[in-house]
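Fill-in record for Diacetyl reductase [(S)-acetoin forming].
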Amino acid sequence: MQEIRQVGIVTGGASGIGKAIGKELIKRGVHVVIADMNTEQGHITAAELRQLGGESTFAKVDVTDAAQVEELVYGVYGEFGRLDYMFNNAGIAMYGELCDMTEQNWKRIIDVNVWGVIYGVQAAYPLMKEQGFGKIANTASAAGLGPAPTTAAYSATKHAVVGLTTSLHYEAEAYGVSVSCLCPAFVDTPIFDSGEAIQMDKSKVIAQVRKQKLMTPEHFAALAIRGLDKNDVLVNPMPLRRTMDIMFTLCPGLH
Ligand code: NAD
């Protein structure tokens, strides 16, 4: 068994917010396991984190597959004898009005954004309960706290993540486990360009988003880690009113 102080898993860690969280964990001397379905980018990110002077490895995982997530979490626990952080962060975006989304679209986004989080929690939480410590952070979104025009399916999945996370937060406290929900609003990552299922002109959505003031992933990750330190139930850096104002500006002229 390796001699290591702490270990953390970040799903969706190859890019964007997950990658920035990895950097924050490295600063704390945590061994970071980048878990992502993008093998090429995952290896690149783990190498970047090692260049910062820390320990990082890559594990290829599709979070929609419960067995893969379980194997990841049990594998890390078996190797290090502990699990300090579990970031269930992998997610996808979809743009389109509710009735325009096909059943296949709905199933896909629920699989990644909701089941991906549930599988991560179901694997990590019992281990953390047993060891009596650990921090779980599930990435939802400001779109999980209020209306998010043009992203009904995405918003529905993120509301689910807020609900399951905030419920678990209060159950977990008694076992020394911290469970938090990260609710970023507009963070400058590739997610806006990679959003699936466009029933409307995606470029208009992206153009509107880019006009807004985007937070850097590094800034958001620093806030996220600080929130976890305080055992905050919700980490929501932008006032909800401002988030809603921005979201409603995404509405006009989309068709
Ligand atoms: P990103 O596209 O940069 O990163 C997402 C990562 O998740 C990618 O590396 C991708 O390969 C991975 N991924 C996707 N599906 C996966 C799967 N099935 N299994 C494993 N890995 C998978 O996007 P990001 O902005 O960093 O998003 C991270 C999280 O933050 C997501 O849950 C997203 O919904 C949430 N979020 C982002 C913003 C924002 O403004 N960027 C706002 C609110 C919420």
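KEY FINDING: The pocket of nicotinamide-adenine-dinucleotide is lined by residues 11-12, 14-18, 36-38, 61-64, 89-92, 112, 116, 139, 141, 184, 186-187, 189-191, 194 (CB under 6 Å).
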